[in-house]
Structure formats: C-alpha cells, structure tokens
Amino acid sequence: MSITTDTNDNADLPVFPGVRSQRCPLDPPAEYADWRQAEGLRHVRLWNGHTAWAVTRYEDVRAVLSDPRLSADAQRYPSVLPHTQVPAFPRMDDPDHARLRRMLTADFTVKRVEAMRPEIHEVVERFLDEMISKGQPADLVREYALPIPSLVISLLLGVPYDDHEFFQQHSATMNHANASPQEKAEASGALFGYLLSLVKRKEREPGDDLISRLLTERVAKGELSREEAAMNGMILLFAGHETTANMIGLGTLALLQNPDQAARIRDTDDPAVVANAVEELLRYLSIAQDMIVRVATEDLTIGGQFVRAGEAVTVNLPAANRDTAFLDQPDNVDIDRNTRGHLAFGYGIHQCLGQNLARVELQVALPALLRRLPGLRLAVSLEEVKFRHDMSAYGVHELPVAW
Ligand code: HEM
C-alpha cells in the first residue's frame, strides 16, 4: 500500500509538536486548544517531514490507541514510522508485539518494582550527596535527574553504568528533532551493536539481571533470537532513562513554580499523597510530546474526520491531558486531585511498559530532593532555562539550581 503522506506539499502546515511560549513553558503550545475545539482533526507536519492528522481530544486519543485498525508496524510503514535494524516491539502490532512484550512484563509488575524501592532510595541519596558535595549552583539535570533513571535501568538490565555517556549520547540523538535520519540510524546502530556484544558477553557470564534472564529463559530455549534479546535491551535502555529524567527535571521546575504544592510533598509522611502528586505531575507535564504515531490500515473516521488508509495519525498527549472533557481546570497543577485515567503513559496495547518503575523513581526522587534541600531554588531566571522544544521527550536541557 502506498503512503499518501509526502514531504513536499506540506510546508504550510503547522509543525508538530509545536513550540511552547517561553512565558508559559509548562503549558502545551497555545494552538493545541484551538485544534481541540475545531471540528475533525488538524493536519500537521511531523519532525520527519511527513504529514499526519493530529488527535487532540481526550476521547479521540483513547479511541485511536485502542483501535486495531491503526498500526504501529514500522516494517509495514517504514517511510513514516521510525524503524530499527531488528524489528522492535513498540513498532509492531499484535500478535508479534504481544509475543515480545509478554517476555518482559514480569520485570515491571508493581511487586517487582516495589522490591527495588530500597535500592532506588540508595541511588537517589548517593546522587544527592554527590551533587551537594560538588557545591552550588548545580545543573540538576546532569547531577540528579539524568543519572538516577540511567543507573536504575542499567542495574535492572545488567548494563555497565560506566558506559552511561555512550548510551545517553546516542539516546539523545535518537530523540532529537534536528538529527538527520542518517544520524538517527547511526545512533540506533551504535546502541544496537553495543547491546549485541553485551548479550554475547552475558551468554558466557550470566549475571542476576534482565538481559541474562532473557538469555537463559528464552534464547536458550529457542523462543527468542539473540538479536531480539539485544533489541529488547536497547528499547528498555533507551525508553528507561530519557523519559523519567525529564519528568524529574521538569517536575522539579513545576514544583518550584508552585511552592505550596512543593511544601505539601516535602512535609507529608503519607506515601499516598506523594503517589497522587506524581500522577498529577505526569498528567500536567505530559512530556511524551512526540512519541506516538500510527498509520490507518483502512479508511476510517476519527473524531469526525475521514482518514484514508495509509495516512498517518499522531496522538497529542499534552493536549488530551488538558481537555476539560477529561477533568476540570486542567491547566492548574493540583496534587490532591484525582487524575485517574490520565494518558501520560499512553493507552491500549502499547501503554508504557515501564510505568510502575517510572512512578517509583519519581515518588522517591522528588520528595528526597525537596527534603534534603528545603531552600532549593532556580539559580537563573525562568526566561534563561533551556527547554527541550526540540526533543521527543519534553523537559529541560539544563536546570541550574541553588539551595
Ligand atoms: C515518566 C516516564 C515515562 C513516560 C512519560 C513514558 C511514556 C510512554 C508512552 C506515552 C508510551 C506509549 C508509546 C506508544 O503508544 O507508542 C510508552 C511506551 C513504552 N515505554 Fe514508557 N514512559 C516512561 C518511562 C519508561 C520507563 C522507565 C521504561 C522502561 C524501563 C519505559 C519503557 C517503555 C516501553 C518498552 C514502551 C513500549 C511499550 C509497547 O509498545 O508495548 N518507559 N512510554
């Protein structure tokens, strides 16, 4: 089937994701509210140059993400969906997607992740100690927000953390709007090569980690190839640190902007208050601004819009999570409200595999920071903070802080 989207006739369309105002950098671009109000869907130009329909209403997003007629299969639609040398399950449809995802779910259940909480506490305290001992001002992203999820996912997978600069740098290239397809392919190839040699090493010397378990429990039985095991490791490494890191960085900034809510998190000894606060921050910030693209496998109607087979559809999570049809006063951050049903981790069969881990990391990292450094403040003006308008996961490139 030919793809009807092309890169030449869409120069007039708004670029998606749009750029946020520097005055309200925690709010989605203003035009999203208009798109949500307008009939049908908005035609937009994606960072890769393709045309897509942007879905902005809460109910429409849920409908898209639970509709099997919309495909995430990058092998089938290689010109629109980012693909990798070995197929990766986030870019597959069921049943292939389910076969590979099922092999990983046991490592990300609430129970398994809760068992990691003490270790996550230790990691958090260690990076806090290091940041404090280096002195202020400090870049919170470099010293705290990025290293925590990076070390945690490395421990879980069995990836040597000493290699963190290598995998952080390549993950960032894969996430960057301005990286060329060639640069993205090279970064993804380098990461995959790294994981494949790690897999070969672990076949000889297995450890107590997820990749070793995949090898002994799946590869040895012929249920998974070595390449698929390496690709699963690569996906988790890639997905497991950039996203959470940006929630820690941007979440901290949101709390500094809302000191009464920060105080409530700092002063409570009720874990349920912290857990609820994390859900609200996930909703309010909806950092996954450019992660979800699907292709219609047949003609269909979404939100009153006729969409032809082969056309791309992108899901606008920041807009959907600020829809008044979902909750009242969505532009306020209110850590005590009920945000059940928010879409920050997506919805349907591809809903985030690592969400329980991300939650625990945030539930530990945000209060620990506020408690150890009650005087935490921005070391620059808000206007000087560099926001990640150009990255798939929104956030801050740097967050200079003092205490
Ligand atoms: C706050 C942090 C995070 C956010 C906001 C987030 C967001 C998302 C979103 C929106 C999706 C859906 C993509 C789609 O439908 O195409 C997703 C999928 C995924 N996430 Fe996360 N994520 C986070 C943390 C993590 C972590 C820590 C891991 C791994 C340890 C992870 C692993 C994955 C994987 C493997 C998928 C693909 C699932 C599938 O296709 O079945 N994520 N994430």
Automatic annotation (TrEMBL):
| Coiled coil region boundaries | none
Q: Does the keyword Magnesium apply?
A: no
One matching Pfam family, short form? p450
Q: What InterPro entries does its record include?
A: Cyt_P450, Cyt_P450_CS
> PROSITE patterns annotated for this entry?
CYTOCHROME_P450
Task: Specify the domain of life of the species encoding this protein.
Answer: Bacteria
Which UniProt keywords are given for this protein, alphabetically ordered? Heme, Iron, Metal-binding, Monooxygenase, Oxidoreductase
- Tell me the enzyme class: oxidoreductase
Cite the GO molecular-function annotations of the record: oxidoreductase activity
The enzyme's E.C. designation = 1.14.-.-
Whether Oxidoreductase counts among this entry's keywords is yes
Q: Which family does it belong to?
A: Belongs to the cytochrome P450 family.
This protein is called what? Cytochrome P450
Taxonomic source organism: Nonomuraea guangzhouensis
